[in-house]
Write a structure and sequence with these properties.
It is a single chain. By secondary structure, this protein is an alpha/beta fold. It has 2 domains: 122 residues, Periplasmic binding protein-like II (D-Maltodextrin-Binding Protein, domain 2); 127 residues, 3-Layer(aba) Sandwich (D-Maltodextrin-Binding Protein, domain 2), CATH 3.40.190.10. It is 39% helix and 25% strand.
């Protein structure tokens, strides 16, 4: 009896210790652009180290920052710079960003617009399209077809980079009555399936078969395309960092995930998903 009791007690202690050692899941939220890289890295760590990492994209970049600032996540994914407004909204947080790659926000159009001769636009033309002053592609040298502008939801990193480029400050962007799209998947599907369509989308998602990335025609007439070289050297005007953010220095599972992301295997994932790697990763303010 004593032996049986001792065995039962030992088993019970082992079970209790196992539960005590079980770490809570690492909650990651934010950008649908960064999501494929982080999700695949999380799967690697789940298989190799048994880590539980929950990845969500509710609300895009700003949604991720809100989740981090409010304690609903331990890591945010953002496809834009870390903003002063982020810190102002959550003054008690000590946001620390780590850059894992680079990307460009492209203006993508449907196949009929591309085939009709629209290959690049000036910033003034983009503003006129966005604000509804240009209603037919014929007005900018394209086909006689109605413009359908699918606008990224405000708060998405893609929209914020676009609005900053177009107006100098996202707060100066006017309210527009345009159909909205959320994730990259939704944006790609809507543009590909809608004649006369245009939207803002990560350049990595332009397949040049169903949707096409336009060049930006500068004041001197030079057209800059969202090529890897132009994104890396910053000459493409809608280049942006891809980052993960923690509240203070990353620790535990967050540190393990970031170490993978900025290391050789993580940077290979960045490249695999069409983005531009960074050398070893770097902190960004």
């Amino acid at each position: 009896m004593l032996r049986a009791g001792k065995l039962l007690l030992t088993a019970g202690c082992a079970l209790t210790a196992g539960l005590a050692l079980a770490a809570p899941p690492l909650r990651v939220n934010g950008s649908t652009t960064v999501n494929p890289v982080v999700t695949e890295a999380a799967e690697i760590l789940r298989a190799e180290k048994g880590l539980t990492i929950q990845v969500d994209t509710q609300g895009g970049s700003s949604g991720g920052m809100a989740a981090l600032g409010e304690g609903r996540a331990e890591m945010a994914m953002i496809s834009r710079p870390l903003l002063d407004d982020d810190r102002a909204h959550y003054p008690k947080a000590r946001f620390q960003a780590t850059r894992i790659g680079s990307d460009g926000v492209a203006l993508v159009v449907s196949k009929d617009v591309w085939a009709g001769g629209v290959r690049s636009l000036t910033r003034a033309q983009v503003r006129s399209l966005y604000e509804g002053q240009v209603k037919s592609w014929k007005q900018v040298g394209g086909p006689d077809r109605r413009v359908v502008f699918f606008n990224k939801e405000p708060g998405r990193g893609t929209w914020e980079v676009f609005a900053h480029w177009l107006y100098g400050d996202v707060k100066k962007a006017p309210l527009v009555n345009l159909p909205e799209v959320g994730s990259n998947e939704e944006t790609r599907s809507k543009v590909a399936g809608t004649p006369g369509a245009i939207s803002q989308l990560s350049s990595a998602w332009a397949d040049n078969q169903r949707i096409f990335a336009l060049g930006i025609r500068q004041d001197d007439g030079k057209v800059v395309l969202p090529t890897p070289a132009a994104i890396l050297d910053g000459s493409y005007p809608l280049s942006r960092p891809l980052q993960v953010v923690t509240d203070g220095p990353p620790q535990g599972a967050a540190r393990t995930l970031i170490d993978l992301l900025v290391g050789p295997r993580g940077q290979a994932l960045v490249k695999k998903h069409g983005y531009e790697p960074v050398s070893g990763g770097q902190a960004a303010r």
